[in-house]
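ok new one. same drill as before - structure tokens go in, u give me an amino acid for every spot. 333 of them this time. try not to just spam alanines like last time pls lmao
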């Protein structure tokens, strides 16, 4: 049986109180909301905080509300509530789909949107018991000095494996962070870093208090696809989020694609505008976009599944996502 290390549990009632506790205890404290990722990692001794600061009981981090031309979602809202909220289903179905595909229903009832955004990176050589990691010699991300994936110790390549961030990126979302230095807003497109050890711009002691998603135009569409071993619970081996704006002639005037679970941060696919702008999403255009994505994506051996197979699945998943964007006029082309 894997046991938790000893810790003290704090239940602040306000955001300022939570930030104060995290600032007071510094590196000895971690925030926890649903705990669906942190608690297993603590059992594996990947994290051994002396203090856990709970965010679940803070009213200021819950709720859905319209703010002008955007929807505000509290960082402590559960993934289950995001997946079934009427406003999310109506305006952002790709986000509802992503949130609804995280793990299983029990974990979605506990896991939160803010927690999913801040999900720790994952790797075959990292997400193991302490006994297993000790036998191997530990790794660059935790207690070691070499990356067992690349065989060198310069950079950790543990993979970003969260479902909602790539979708939020295609929707132009921003997040509010609260910390000892005050509050600030960061766009999701600028939030992540290519560093498997700490892959975001979130500073120590900061928490995600809310997510802001601007309303899209009526001619905008977005979609999400996820590849995993078991459809009921697993982390993604590859996920694809896409969005596009269309003119009334069903021609593309803006398009964006993001893939994740391949590297330490979600990857924005480049060169799509040159291929698709001014054209309908015909079969030929979709095929060209999928091939462009395939050329850009090179998975590493940081997951248990063969990297070459994962790369072969990139154009397959991109095609599925883009097919979901096609307006009726484009389907007829």
């Amino acid at each position: 049986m894997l046991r938790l290390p000893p810790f003290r549990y704090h239940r602040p009632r306000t955001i300022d109180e939570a930030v104060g506790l995290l600032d007071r205890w510094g590196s000895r404290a971690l925030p926890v909301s649903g705990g669906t990722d942190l608690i297993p990692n603590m059992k594996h001794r990947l994290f051994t905080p002396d203090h856990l600061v709970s965010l679940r009981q803070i009213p200021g981090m819950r709720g859905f509300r319209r703010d002008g031309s955007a929807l505000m979602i509290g960082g402590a809202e559960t993934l289950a509530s995001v997946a079934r909220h009427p406003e999310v289903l109506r305006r952002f179905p790709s986000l509802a789909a992503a949130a609804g595909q995280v793990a299983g229903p029990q974990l979605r009832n506990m896991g939160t949107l803010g927690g999913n955004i801040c999900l720790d990176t994952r790797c075959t050589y990292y997400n193991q018991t302490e006994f297993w990691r000790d036998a191997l010699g530990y790794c660059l991300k935790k207690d070691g000095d070499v990356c067992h994936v690349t065989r060198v110790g310069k950079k950790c390549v543990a993979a970003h494996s969260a479902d909602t961030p790539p979708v939020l990126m295609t929707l132009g979302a921003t997040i509010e962070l609260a910390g000892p230095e005050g509050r600030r807003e960061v766009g999701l497109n600028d939030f992540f870093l290519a560093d498997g050890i700490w892959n975001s711009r979130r500073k120590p002691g900061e928490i995600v208090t809310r997510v802001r998603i601007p309303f899209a135009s009526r001619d905008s569409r977005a979609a999400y696809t996820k590849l995993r071993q078991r459809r009921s619970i697993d982390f993604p081996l590859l996920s694809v989020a896409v969005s596009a704006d269309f003119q009334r002639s069903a021609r593309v005037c803006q398009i964006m694609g993001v893939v994740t679970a391949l590297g330490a941060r979600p990857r924005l696919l480049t060169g799509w505008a040159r291929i698709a702008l001014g054209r309908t999403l015909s079969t030929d255009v979709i095929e060209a976009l999928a091939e462009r994505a395939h050329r850009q994506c090179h998975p590493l051996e940081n997951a248990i599944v063969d990297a070459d197979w994962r790369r072969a699945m990139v154009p397959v998943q991109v095609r599925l996502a883009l097919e979901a964007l096609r307006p009726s006029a484009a389907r007829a082309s």
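The chain has 13 helices and twelve strands. and btw Confidence is low (pLDDT under 50) at residues 329-333.
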